[in-house]
């Protein structure tokens, strides 16, 4: 989502700063394009699971696809951390930084929370009696529960607040293995403190500290230009292998949880963090490869990446409305209908974003 965009007002780097290679700039846009495609497919597959014939091959495939794409929020969190850390280490103006974050993230979050709560009332998803309950509004705003996808904006808002405090850590070089080990230890500590009730998060996935591996890796590679390119060139096999092994660990646990079977929460969380961190790095590596090769897909993905926030905010409402139209019972027709819904949920937000580009409406709705 373009909520991760670099502050446009950042001046040119000083001679001491090393500009990111051109391939990385394109790769970041490609990454966003691939990630927002994965978001739409993830939500589409989740919808399909609810209507596919139970026990069918289609239902199994959709469940596997849905669970395998759970790296999408960590992916955007990672890219948010990478881009903003790189920009802030070059030049940081606290007033300008927080004004930009309020405009591009806080205001859209509050506005879309209200819009989606109204959407829920209008479509009967929420009891009308809840409208006047202040406690419900506090929950919707405090935990990103206005609609099921809005918590991402809340997570990045929390990161925006603490980023300036973390910058001094990244003004020196750290070994990657040490950074990974420290992130893993800190993440497990957060889990433990929450488990024993010290932190007592009502909804852990809405807390930025639930994404420490993704945030840490993003800040590390944002602070060290060219480091990821070197790592990918030398160890892409290890990264992809780690993602595959992580998925093999995480997928059975995640599918069991989807079926509401008992799952060890520590094993589930550890597998989730390991898989999503590796998958995010593999996705960034694939984006670099695509950017280097070029081809027709790259301009399309970069254009999609530029409006990823618009697609992210709009597509869940469209999926819900299309869900009300239902699905045919025949497996082939069911699959075709689901694909048609997915295409519409992607294309319509793209057309809306293009139609509103550069207007005051776009700036109010999307912060850009």
SS strand fraction:
under 5%
Mean pLDDT: 90
The total strand number stands at 0
Separation, N- and C-terminal Cα atoms: 12 Å
Report on this structure.
The protein is built from 14 helices and no strands. The termini are close together. By secondary structure, the chain is mostly helical. It is globular and about 55 Å long.
List keywords for this structure.
single chain, 368 residues, mainly alpha, 14 helices, 0% strand, globular, disordered N terminus
In a nutshell, what does this entry contain?
This protein has 368 residues and is mainly α. The chain has helices spanning 22-51, 57-68, 72-90, 94-122, 134-142, 151-166, 176-195, 212-223, 227-258, 265-293, 297-306, 308-323, 331-356, 360-366. Helix 1 (22-51) crosses helix 13, helix 4 (94-122) packs antiparallel against helix 6 (151-166) and helix 7 runs antiparallel to helix 8.
